[in-house]
Amino acid sequence: MYCLQWLLPVLLIPKPLNPALWFNHSMFMGFYLLSFLLERKPCTICALVFLAALFLICYSCWGNCFLYHCQDAALPDAAHDPNIVGT
């Protein structure tokens, strides 16, 4: 499970508050995962554990899924602050 230590931080990196940056964040994370899988070639168990964790986080709409934003999930309170998001 040595290879899992390089995949777990992907689940812990929060999404940006600014909705305009969500696409850039998801592309960066997707390219990171793709390059990691091609270069390091993690073992099957690590890959399955990571994909299961990613599926459960995205399926539950917990708010930290970097693939998409759930429609039912509300934006964080700080997202409505014009000082943070900007206009």
From TrEMBL:
Q: Where do transmembrane segments lie in this chain?
A: 20-38, 45-69
Question: What cellular-component terms does GO give this entry?
Answer: membrane
- Where is the protein situated, by its record's location annotation? Membrane
Q: Does the record carry Transmembrane helix as a key word?
A: yes
Q: Which Pfam families does the record cross-reference, listed alphabetically?
A: BC10
Query: Which terms are listed as keywords in the entry?
Result: Membrane, Transmembrane, Transmembrane helix
Q: Coiled-coil ranges per the record?
A: none
Q: Does the keyword Transmembrane apply?
A: yes
Q: Which family does it belong to?
A: Belongs to the BLCAP family.
Briefly state the protein's biological role: Acts as a tumor suppressor; induces growth arrest at G(1)/S checkpoint and apoptosis via RB1-dependent and p53/TP53- and NF-kappa-B-independent mechanisms. Modulates expression of genes involved in the regulation of proliferation, cell cycle and apoptosis.
Protein name per the record = Bladder cancer-associated protein
- Which species expresses this protein natively? Zoarces viviparus
